């Protein structure tokens, strides 16, 4: 059984079916698509280029599909996902409108017994958690929200019929990737838009545009080789030359020319890949951060607003680097204002708007929360995952998520996690990571079958060594300097642990392959009768 009918769940159906297994996915939404089903806010678009952000498992699929723009919009990506589901006949194994409430591993039966919110019970040998990393929307616990007379929305729970902000006074709280994408569009509709910013975020121009025919032709001619080359990079995204030099080895004029060319090119990987050490050396990073701050100062006319928008509390790239289309220029519009809620926090939502700690009031007709998600662990923490041997996932992860390779959790046999904490997923082209994980899981299940085995779980030792390694790698970078969702910092009370593996997709994939080749090193494989005996 598979939890989730997004990009991961759908590929898992396809891949596991090929093993001759009976497979079924359970999806909370009323349609497939996961992230791309839910996040329908104005301007929602992927910030990885379409030719990269797509499945690679079927050559004809990647040849046939035509992406109209450099970066896919949410409706376009959802259309693509639906096309894939029909093309590979996946839909018949997805049960929609079904939220999973609990999952209990019955040790004696060697089965997962999963219950849905409506009381249905599903029994399965293997449970694949493909529930997403950014799928648990979070509205901060502001006092008074229930009294607000206007309408409010969260980016990740957007109404399917769309929202008309025409003529309204709108407030947007949050300036992460979602906020940065929606703000320029809402600004064009609203009579006035007030953006409530707690932390300024770095954003680079996406330079979106129609797909260039020649670029597409060339990319498709070399698709397989390009996918293979992408797998040899830290972000699983190809096409960017590997940097060879520290930022500090270049003279300032040379450096600025390099940053300028990346700025013009558009895209975040390109920029962060300008030098070898932008994510590990603070002095090097300062040069890249300052370049962008100066760009912001140049784009935003009001210098007080520009300074507020210029991030100073974290190195560029240590929070997810945003891509935008005219984000900073939006603050030059007469109907847009920026309010700093770091120093004057939101105290409460009122009937007519919101009130800050200083007592300042902002009148609003509509309020948008672009406030993010309970990232990486939220979806699994919402399910009561236990075993009849007494393990409970919420307790196991009380001090932060523990996994081996981000794929499995000790004491929870036969439960796989797709792109979970401890894996590089969220730091990569996500579909590449999904395919790599699902392929690894399918190979592991096939291996068990071939050897008349039916149970796999990581040893506690392999798990704790991997978690230690994940932390060590993170500590050798600048990432822990930011209060990011990678650190659980956006959720009050969540343990501050760096969750993704930032050693790179290339190294990680190699490690996963070695582990499998060495007979699933660090895992205990068994036949449950033997275990029971
Ligand atoms: P996010 O990056 O977590 O940003 C949430 C924003 O809300 C932050 O600015 C945060 O401020 C603010 N916020 C949260 N609680 C607040 C409070 N109580 N008061 C004031 N401000 C508050 O969430 P997101 O923008 O939805 O993005 C999440 C992730 O989804 C991204 O990092 C990315 O991986 C993915 N995503 C990708 C795309 C894309 O591909 N283009 C688009 C959208 C999302 P602080 O920074 O101070 O916490």
What does this structure look like?
The strands form seven sheets. A five-stranded parallel beta sheet has the order 5-2-1-9-21. A five-stranded parallel beta sheet has the order 10-19-11-12-15, with helices on one face. The chain contains 18 helices and 23 strands. It is globular and about 70 Å long. By secondary structure, the protein is an alpha/beta fold. Among the domains are: 2-136 and 375-532, FAD/NAD(P)-binding domain (3-Layer(bba) Sandwich), CATH 3.50.50.60; 240-319, no CATH class. The mean pLDDT is 97. The longest helix has 21 residues, at 430-450. Helix 1 (7-17) runs parallel beside helix 15, helix 10 packs antiparallel against helix 11 (303-309) and helix 15 packs parallel to helix 17 (505-517). Helices cover 33% and strands 17% of the residues. Helix 1 links the parallel strand 1 and strand 2. NADP nicotinamide-adenine-dinucleotide phosphate is lined by residues 45-47, 134, 140, 155, 173-179, 181, 198-199, 320, 341, 346, 370-373, 485, 490. NADP nicotinamide-adenine-dinucleotide phosphate (NAP) is lined by residues 45-47, 134, 140, 155, 173-179, 181, 198-199, 320, 341, 346, 370-373, 485, 490.
Oligomeric state of this protein = single chain
CATH topology of the domain at 2-136 and 375-532: FAD/NAD(P)-binding domain
The CATH class assignment of the domain at 2-136 and 375-532 is Alpha Beta
Number of helices: 18
Structural class: alpha/beta
Distance between the termini: 27 Å
Q: Which of globular, elongated, flat, extended, rod-shaped describes the shape?
A: globular
Number of strands: 23
